[in-house]
Design a protein that fits this description.
single chain; alpha+beta; Aminopeptidase; AttH-like fold; 3 domains; eight-stranded antiparallel beta barrel
Length: 562
């Protein structure tokens, strides 16, 4: 199958011999005008370098093959090569290190256009959000009115007829299945280095003859980048439904092209914005742990997350970057937080989550994602505060939570303690800790560290040592009627943290010592300064009182030389 296209590729060359193709690229010839391109379908084998490595677009290679087989399309798939070694969607890298791909794309699209009078190029990518969403990159951005404007850089990669025909059809048909198709909300494919921009008139004067060759086809090629959310790539009914819609829209018609139905216009979902606050809740019972929050901009919700652990070695995650604005609630579909007055609120969710058989998928995101499976989830919780006393911005408000959670076939009835907060805490020096401990002998504790340095028993100053991390803390102790300040020291043993011990002094100069074991320690890594790695641990605290609490611990690991 692969050899067929390689032979046809050589035959299609107008110059001398075709450039040799590497063995790891997969090509297949089809009879339709549709050409599929999956540049990031490989995987990473080297150790992760936080902040420097991009995640490969998992499951795009097999999805592209499935779509191509159903549509009798030609496909060019990278199922092996790590995008961090060679990015096949970056024009500069192709010119320097893989001119054969520019040659192959040109020959393939020219052959399709000769046979059919036009060609359609779909580049299949991955967007690592938990929403059932496909963002179309065509150099345009959809506005709230439903129309489209040019992105800041680049040029449109499709004609107006293709935009208002097949692409609008895809929006309408996918919406019937609960999938949102946006245009340029997150990835408009407008960057000059994006391969999609080669198929526009802007590059017709480029000094590279391979680039000019692709630009000369701008009038006959409709090029669209598809950024697919996790539920549309991982095996499951959402992926199956979206594939059927793609086949329906992009399969060649048996007769004349059908007239395109009008798309029901509505305000598109919005992506991005600078958060000014965050609304969230954390709860833990004997069997469940739940963390959820939504970032809020001046105009409404911006991004949301929901994490549920229903076993000591298992968690499920949803993240979303598309939000509804304006809205009467904070809505990052399908996650919604609805205020009920007197600081009570409801959390609602009905959609897909990615379930992991471990608590460490975020230590190495690509490998963690690869181990996940999509499950259907429903959540309906109501938080009711104990007291209406005023609290500082970002501080915890303690209360109770009631409701139900469904993960796959498992159903949980929830009745327990929780805390909620609104605000974005000031990012203090590292290492840092936040402890929220309900129902202690002092009341409900909300404590933050505030020191720039920490000591370990090992004496190295590196918090990665398995010593004792000591941090000064201060915060509040509250009950239903009063709130008092406390300060002292927290001692955290081990990384990952194993247990904590608090030595606190109240405003009345009374001294208290509290201890707690830590469970379900969930690490999250992100890049720091100058190659350093920032690691945050979320953990349930048990033993400080009648209800479990939470520790958020953040440390900085120094950069490691390559």
């Amino acid at each position: 199958m692969a050899a067929t296209l390689r032979d046809r590729y050589k035959d299609a060359m107008s110059g001398p011999e075709a450039l040799p193709l590497p063995d790891w690229i997969e090509v297949r010839h089809g009879g339709a005008p549709l050409v599929l391109f999956a540049p990031h379908g490989g995987s990473r084998s080297a150790p992760r370098r936080p902040g420097r490595d991009n995640v490969n677009d998992l499951h795009t290679a097999d999805l592209t093959r499935e779509l191509g087989t159903a549509c009798d399309a030609t496909w060019i798939v990278n199922p092996v090569r790590d995008r961090n070694e060679l990015d096949l969607n970056r024009t500069e890298q192709l010119q320097r290190r893989a001119p054969w791909l520019l040659d192959l794309l040109a020959a393939t699209l020219e052959a399709a256009a000769r046979r059919h009078g036009y060609a359609v190029l779909l580049a299949i990518h991955g967007w690592n959000v938990g929403q059932s969403v496909c963002d179309l990159g065509v150099g345009l951005i959809e506005e709230s009115s439903g129309g489209c404007r040019r992105a800041a850089r680049g040029a449109p990669t499709v004609s107006s007829a293709f935009l208002e025909g097949p692409l609008r059809d895809l929006q309408r048909l996918a919406a019937e299945d609960g999938t949102t198709v946006t245009i340029g909300a997150r990835y408009p494919a407008a960057h000059p280095s994006n391969v999609m921009q080669l198929l526009t008139p802007t590059r017709t004067d480029d000094p590279d003859p391979l680039v000019r060759r692709l630009a000369d086809m701008a009038e006959t090629v409709e090029a669209t980048q598809l950024e697919l959310g996790i539920p549309l790539r991982w095996p499951g009914h959402r992926r199956g439904a979206f594939l059927r819609r793609l086949i329906e829209v992009f399969s060649p018609p048996k007769t004349a092209r059908p007239a395109h139905a009008l798309v029901a216009r509505r305000a598109p979902l919005t992506c991005g914005g600078r958060p000014i606050t965050r609304v969230g809740m954390q709860m833990a019972t004997d069997s469940l742990a739940v963390l959820t929050s939504i970032d809020v901009t001046a105009s409404g919700a911006a991004a949301g997350r929901l994490l549920i652990s229903d076993a000591p070695d298992r968690l499920s995650l949803f993240t979303g970057e598309l939000s509804e604005r304006p809205s009467s609630a904070l809505h990052v579909p399908p996650l919604r937080i609805v205020a009920r007055g007197h600081h009570a609120f409801d959390v609602r969710f009905a959609g897909a989550m990615l379930a992991f058989p471990m608590l460490t998928p975020f230590s190495d995101l690509e490998r963690g994602l690869a181990a996940g499976t999509v499950v259907d989830a429903r959540l309906a919780l109501r938080f009711t505060p104990d007291s209406l006393v005023a609290i500082p911005n970002g501080a915890a408000r303690f209360g109770s939570v009631e409701g139900t959670i469904r993960l796959g076939r498992a159903r949980h009835r929830v009745h327990g303690r929780a805390h909620a907060a609104e605000g974005i805490p000031w990012p203090g020096p590292l290492p840092s800790a936040h402890l929220v401990l309900p129902e202690t002998s002092l009341g409900h504790l909300d404590l933050w560290s505030h020191a720039a340095t920490a000591a370990t028993d090992a004496g190295s100053g590196d918090p990665a040592d398995d010593g004792l991390l000591r941090l000064p803390v201060e915060g509040t102790a509250c009950n239903r009627e009063t709130m008092n300040t406390v300060h002292g020291t927290v001692e955290i043993r081990g990384l990952p943290p194993v247990d904590v011990r608090l030595h606190l002094e109240t405003a009345e100069r009374t001294h208290h010592t509290l201890g707690s074991a830590l469970e379900r320690r969930i690490p999250v890594r992100r890049p720091g300064r100058e190659g350093a790695v920032i690691e945050t641990f979320f953990a349930i605290c048990r033993g400080t009182g009648a209800a479990p609490g939470w520790l958020d611990l953040t440390v900085e690991h120094p950069a490691v030389a390559d």
